Structure formats: C-alpha cells, structure tokens
C-alpha cells in the first residue's frame, strides 16, 4: 500500500515515514481550514496547521477548544488524524492492504519494520495484524466503559460519542477532549478528578497505549511461551518504577496543595493519573498551573522520558532512559559491561541512547531559548511547553492558547520531531552512506 504513494520514489524507510506524517498533516490542515470544521468563524491557517500537527503527532496541545470551537466534522477529522498518527500511517495502510487481500511487498515490510522499531522483518505482518486487533479491542472496551459513565451526565447518543472519542484519544496518547462543551473551554477531565471509572479507565488506556505494541503482543503470548523478551522486561519494569515513584513524589509535593480538598481515594487516583499522563497521555484531572513549581518540574522530567518505542507516545523513550541509568550504574561500580536482566547491552544500543538523549536535549534547550524570546511568559511555563511538545504529552501551563505565530511554528516543529523521533529524522535527512576507508589513531581525553 505504501508503494501506491511512494513506489516511484527512491526513498529510505525513515524518509517515507517522515513524508507520511507530512502528508497527513497537510491533509488535516486543509480539512480543518474548511468552514464546515468550525462552529463559528473558520479557524486561521496557522491554527489549522497547529491542530492538525498536534493530532497527527498525538500530542494534544490545542490553540482552539475542541469541544466548543470545532464542529462534529472538525472533531472527526481530529479523531481520524490521531488514530492514524497513533497507530502509524504505515500500519493503517497495511490494514487497507489486508482488507483488500493484497500482497505486502518487501519494501512495505521494511517500512513496517522501521515504523514498529523492530530489528528484523520476521513475523512483522503477524505483529501488525495483532496491533490492529488489540487496538480495536482495547479502544472499544474503553469506549464502552467511558460511555457507561458519561450516560449519567448526558443523553445516551452523546455519551456513546464522547466515550468513543475519548477512548481513541486517550489510548493513542493524543489527549484531546470535548468537555469544553459542558464544563467550559479547556476544562479537560478536572470535573472527574475523584471519579474511579474515568480515572482507572484513562490510566489503563494511557498505559496500554504507551508500553508499545511489541510489549503488548509479548505479554499476551506469555501464557504460551512462559517468558518475556528483554525489551518487554525493561519497558514494564521501568514503567512500573516511573509510575510508582512519580505518584509518590506527586502525592508528597501536592498533599497540602491541590490534593488537599480531595478525599483519600481521590488523592491516590489524582496522584497516579498525573504520574502516568506526562508520559504522553495528555489528559489531566488537576489544573497544571495550580501545581507547585517542584511538581511542574517533576512532570517536565517525566514528559522528557516519555513512553516506550513502537508505542503511541513520544519522548526519548523509557528504554533509552533505562540504558542511560544502567550505564551510569555500571560505570559507578567499575563494571565493563552494561547488564540488564542478565543480558549484556551492546555498545551500539548505548551509543544510540546517548545520541538520542543529546539530540533531544539540544532540541529542547534551543527551542526553549527561542520561545523565551518570542513569548511573554515565565521561564518554567516556556520550558514546560517545549518539553510537552517534544514529548507529545499535550499538557500545558496555559501558554498554548497565548502563543504568537512564531511560537506556534516552533511548537509545530517540536511536535513533529518529537513524534517522528530525532534519530529517525536525522537518518531521513542524512546523505547516502559511504564506507570509511581509514580509521584515526585512538586518543585519550581526561573526563571528570
């Protein structure tokens, strides 16, 4: 199916993936610019581009309120964009190919391998079939649970639509919501801060969408294989640590602040949701501007780490963070090898993790500096916005709606790079490989 669009072009998989996102964003921008997409005056081109990029890159930052300023047509455009953006346009194209009973070519298998961050093409089509089935089942289950809760507050038809929209949005880590139509613009899920159904369903959807389809498939196969891949162990263990530590620290920092009015159960639900959602979830039940600066900085750290590879989330990825932490631990103990779950990590993976982190850090630092010049906001709000865009988290301290045109362009670039990945984009833009014919002599540099 990918050959239908790119077959006549000699493009590498990273270039095709990047170009695919550009095409989705362009199509979304065109549709959102139409008068039919708005409830009032049509939104400007830059706002349409911003919303289309945010949806395609499953970020959730919004310059217009989805529930009040976009029509049902505009909301459905967003829904399609973040469904394609979350699962990947290559995956969705493969679905069409499978439905049409077409043969999947070698080039398309290479594309699937790249889009799913797999090391080989073996079983890749089977994995894609599973991804599509798992996604459909999880999103449908989430839609039913949320609709059953929303029907208490609204008519059954509207509850079903809200349940479906929010289930797809939250699972794909997009973070868009429609509650501005009920509770006021940009209100999010704040009215459901103590609601167990909305909170637990949202947390499960974010977690399942954020651990990656490779891990999801591996976990489901555990009963048959009786073992997990190293990748799955690292993702699950690191996710558990980040969620637990994040929730405990959030609870401790906000106990006498934003959590004070809530009952005991509400405090726990709010702490865990706010610990999970920075890793690309995008939905919050606590107003972020009201948090302490220390808590806001905690969320910045979690947003920068992000979700797992091959998932609907962004950031440097939790496997990258795990490798960096393991490398530091090994060096502090004077160990030569970096070992995780009794497996030695290759130097190539370590170099890739370091490169990914440095590129991401440079991107965030440069973007924050530029936004500090273009925007009239305090430094922490600017840093929060930059990291949220890069990590495709979709959480804001209120700066998004106040962005200047230049600021919107900068955030658009951040969202795009954050979704495609700095390394993927670097590979897409790099010149053709040429083999080095010689090596320089080794030298020593004093460090520390």
From TrEMBL:
Topology in membrane: Multi-pass membrane protein
Keyword Transmembrane part of the UniProt annotation: yes
InterPro entries membership: Cat_transpt, TrkH
Keywords of this entry: Cell membrane, Ion transport, Membrane, Potassium, Potassium transport, Transmembrane, Transmembrane helix, Transport
Transmembrane segments annotated in the record for this chain: 16-37, 44-64, 76-100, 131-152, 200-222, 234-253, 297-330, 350-373, 379-397, 409-429
Localization, UniProt: Cell membrane
Major site of localization recorded for this protein: membrane
Entry annotated with the keyword Cell membrane: yes
Source domain of life: Bacteria
PANTHER family: KTR SYSTEM POTASSIUM UPTAKE PROTEIN B, TRK SYSTEM POTASSIUM UPTAKE PROTEIN TRKG-RELATED
Protein name: Trk system potassium uptake protein TrkH
UniProt organism field: Paenibacillus silagei
């Amino acid at each position: 199916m990918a050959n239908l669009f790119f077959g006549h072009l000699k493009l590498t998989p990273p270039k095709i993936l990047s170009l695919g996102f550009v095409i989705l964003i362009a199509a979304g921008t065109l549709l959102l610019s139409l008068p039919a997409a708005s409830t009032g005056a049509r939104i400007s081109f830059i706002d349409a581009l911003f919303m289309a990029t945010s949806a395609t890159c499953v970020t959730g930052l919004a310059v217009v309120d989805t529930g009040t300023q976009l029509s049902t047509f505009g909301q459905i455009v967003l829904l399609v964009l973040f469904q394609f953006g979350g699962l990947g346009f290559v995956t969705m194209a493969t679905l069409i190919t499978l439905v049409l009973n077409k043969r999947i070519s070698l080039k398309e298998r290479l594309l699937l391998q790249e889009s799913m961050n797999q090391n080989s093409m073996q079983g890749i089509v089977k994995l894609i079939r599973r991804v599509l089935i798992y996604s459909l089942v999880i999103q449908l289950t989430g839609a039913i649970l949320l609709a059953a809760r929303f029907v208490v507050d609204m008519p059954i038809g509207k509850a079903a639509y809200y349940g479906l929209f929010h289930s797809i949005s939250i699972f794909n880590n997009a973070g868009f919501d429609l509650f501005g139509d009920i509770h006021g613009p940009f209100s999010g899920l704040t009215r459901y801060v103590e609601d167990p159904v909305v909170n637990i369903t949202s947390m499960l959807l974010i977690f399942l969408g954020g651990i990656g389809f490779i891990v999801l498939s591996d976990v489901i196969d555990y009963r048959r294989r009786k073992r997990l891949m190293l990748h799955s162990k690292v993702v699950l263990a690191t996710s558990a640590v980040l969620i637990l530590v994040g929730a405990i620290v959030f609870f401790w920092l906000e106990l006498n602040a934003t959590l004070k009015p809530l009952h005991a159960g509400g405090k726990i639900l709010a702490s865990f949701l706010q610990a999970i959602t920075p890793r690309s979830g995008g939905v919050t039940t606590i107003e972020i501007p009201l948090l302490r600066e220390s808590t806001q900085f905690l969320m910045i750290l979690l947003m920068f780490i992000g979700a797992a590879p091959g998932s609907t989330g962004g950031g440097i990825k939790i496997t990258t963070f795990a490798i960096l932490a393991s490398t530091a631990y090994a060096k502090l103990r004077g160990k030569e090898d970096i070992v995780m779950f009794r497996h030695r990590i290759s130097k190539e993976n370590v170099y890739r993790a370091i490169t990914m982190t440095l590129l991401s850090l440079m991107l965030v630092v440069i973007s924050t500096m530029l936004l500090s010049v273009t925007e009239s906001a305090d430094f922490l709000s600017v840093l929060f916005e930059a990291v949220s865009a890069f990590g495709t988290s979709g959480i804001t301290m209120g700066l998004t709606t106040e962005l200047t045109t230049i600021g919107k362009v900068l955030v658009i670039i951040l969202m795009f790079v954050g979704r495609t990945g700095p390394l993927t984009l670097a590979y897409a833009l790099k010149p053709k490989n040429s083999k080095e014919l010689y090596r320089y002599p080794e030298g020593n540099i004093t460090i520390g």
